[in-house]
Amino acid sequence: MLRPYTLSSDKIVAMKVLTAKVVAGRLDVPEGILEEGATVTLLIPEDEEGFRLSPEEQTLLAEAIAQSERGEVVDGWQLLDELKD
C-alpha cells in the first residue's frame, strides 16, 4: 500500500544534494544551481573529518545513484510494510 509522503502538516518535496564552499562568510554556489531567493536548508558537519569511501564503496554508491535516477527504487512505506509481514 502506498502512502502519501507527508510528515505532520508539512509537505515533503524532492531535494538535491549540493556541496559548496564558504568564501568570505558566504556560500559559494555555482551560478544557475539555485534560483535567486531560493530557501535552502544546511546540514553542517560538527567536525572537519568527514568520511572517505574506498574505490569499491564509490562504485557501489555510483551504481545506487544511477539506479535511483532510472527510477529503480522501492517505496519506503511499502518496504516497511513488507518487513513487518
Descriptive notes:
The chain has helices spanning 55-69, 76-84, and strands at 6-7, 10-11, 21-23, 26-28. The chain has 85 residues and is of the alpha+beta class. The chain has one domain. A two-stranded antiparallel ribbon has the order 1-2. Strand 3 and strand 4 form a beta hairpin. The longest helix has 15 residues, at 55-69.
Element layout with pairings:
Layout lengths: L5 E2 L2 E2 L9 E3 L2 E3 L26 H15 L6 H9 L1
Antiparallel strand pairs: 1-2, 3-4
Notable traits:
85 residues, alpha+beta, two-stranded antiparallel sheet, two-stranded antiparallel ribbon, extended, disordered N terminus
Summarize the structure.
This protein has helices at 55-69, 76-84; strands spanning 6-7, 10-11, 21-23, 26-28.
Largest sheet: 2 strands, antiparallel
The pLDDT mean sits at 79
Share in helix: 25-40%
Shape: extended
- Rg value: 17 Å
Count, helices: 2
Q: What is the CA-CA span between the terminal residues?
A: 13 Å
β-strand amount: 5-15%
Low-confidence runs of at least 5 consecutive residues? 1-9
Q: Strand order within the widest sheet?
A: 1-2
Question: Count the strands?
Answer: 4
Class derived from helix and strand content: alpha+beta
Any idea how many domains? Answer: 1
The run of helices and strands is: EEEEHH
